[in-house]
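Researcher: Let's try something more involved. This one mixes different molecule types, so please make sure each is placed in the same coordinate frame as the others.
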Amino acid sequence: MSKFTHHIFVCGKCKPPKHLRDGKHDPGKLRAALKKEIKQLGLKADVRANDSGCLDQCDDGQVIVIYPQAIWYGGVTEADVDRIIHETILGGKILEDLVISSERLRCGKKAKASDSASSESSPSS
Ligand code: FES
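Model: All components are placed in one shared frame. Result:
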C-alpha cells in the first residue's frame, strides 16, 4: 500500500477575497494547476492534490492545507503553484507570505468577528 508524502487539500468553497472579486478566481483551476505540476514532475506516486469542502479558514482567501505536515496556506493563487510544489513540497520550505499562522488557525472552532484580533493561542500543528 502506497502512502503519499504530501496530500494537498484545496478548499473548493472559498469565496474570492476582495482583491480577486473579478470573477477569475476558481478553486478548480488552482487544483488543476497543482495536479498538472505534480504530473509534469513525476510526483504522482507521492503527492496528491484533492478538492475539499470548507476548511474553516474562510477569512484567509483561497485556502489549501498540506498533510501530514499540516502546512496551511491562505490567499493562494495559480501564480503560487510553482513555489508550492518546488519550494514546499520538494524543498520543505514554508512560504511565509502564504502561511496561516497557528494563531489564526481556527482548528474547528467557530469563527467570531473578534478572532482575528484575538491574542488567544490555538493548538499548534
Ligand atoms: S470556504 Fe474555504 S475555508 Fe471555508
